[in-house]
Amino acid sequence: MSSRTLSGAAVWVAVVVAGSGCAIRLGPKAVELKRSANPPLMRLGKVTEDCTGSWAPVARANAWGRRERLTSLLRQSEAASLFTSDPASLVMDIHLVSDHEDDGPRLLLLGTMSIATLGIVPLPYHSEWTTRCEVTLKTPEGTPVGEHHLQVKGTYDILAFPLTMFTLGAAGLRGAQDGAEVSRRMARSLAAEIVKAVDADHARLATWRETRAAIAEQQPLSVQVGEATYWVTFNIASGKEGGTPRRQYVLEIHRTRPQAGAAPVRSLVVGHAAAMGESPWLWRDPKSVVFYAERRLWYPEWSVDGPHARLTAIQFKERPVPAKELFQPDSLPELPPADWNSLLVSWKNSELTGLLRDASTGDLRDYVDRIEQMILKASEAAEKEKDEAQQLTMKGAPGAELHAQLSRTYHSRIEVLKPILAAIKTELANRAK
Which of 3, 9, 39, 336 has the fewest Cβ atoms within 10 Å of its own Cβ atom? Predict the structure, then answer.
């Protein structure tokens, strides 16, 4: 080999060595955390995380997710300005889902490629983490009042220049440091997005808190139901109307004057409004809202006042139930099955004799058909609830006793209907003689 060739080779090697390096780019961009522009409305509740992807077992074992860093930021950084220690405040729960594919196998493949190419071919590498963040806002009692769906992506990019076996080695030495920096940036980005989302929703959340205060300060209203005295309070709950999330205006009925935290004997949904807006309440037809008590059916008439619809007056009026409606439970779907049974018993003891005397033959035949259909439906419902109770029992899951009780309730309905059906058939037979 000539001296000129050796000289040229030496120059090439010198250039390669001098040009060796590794371009590393981390994402997301670093963000500045800012304090909330509004007074705090909530407390920080639970922060939970699921890790998915091939890194999940190692991530869970080493707490490599975002939960710890995000929780620390929300408690100690500028983002902590969102929160107060007031126990009456709204509660923010956060659930993270962090997804990543393990870098080990791919980095091993990259090293193999570096050796195979003698380290003279530039090699790129890309890795990313995705964290979805579900923020749920609720009252201290657990009623959801809002939610936000956020997402942040972290990236780690390498472009290794020759000689790549050396530059990749150098990148490997700072890999843990770079990974930690990506994690810090992702947590800060999430914290910043949470502050931004809550600030944008502040006016609505403030209304919710004021409404809660009005609920907490209300005085129960006493009301006569037949010969008995009941007590009524109001509450705002989250529910659905036709599958669409709604705020619900609920009348809570108590048998005695309620103390804080007392559970009502019945809850009646009398109005609804948009879940996330400031839309007015849309009230239901009072006669479509029923309450069984004192052996009769009642419906409420109510009055509200002020921006938080504070309940100011309530009364219950008796609601007659025609036989055609009584023998068609679907007409009042919100009446609990046990109350239907009690209503049937009360009607049988007070109204059946008059029905047999005054109803036309055609109406009696119609009642026979309706009652037999009710018995069939009750039988099917009883078996369905029994099967559900058995399945839950086998799984060791909660709720089995509730389904078993419903099964017994539907069986009891059949026993209540049988004498009514027999009496009507006997009357029809007597008229046919």
Answer: 3
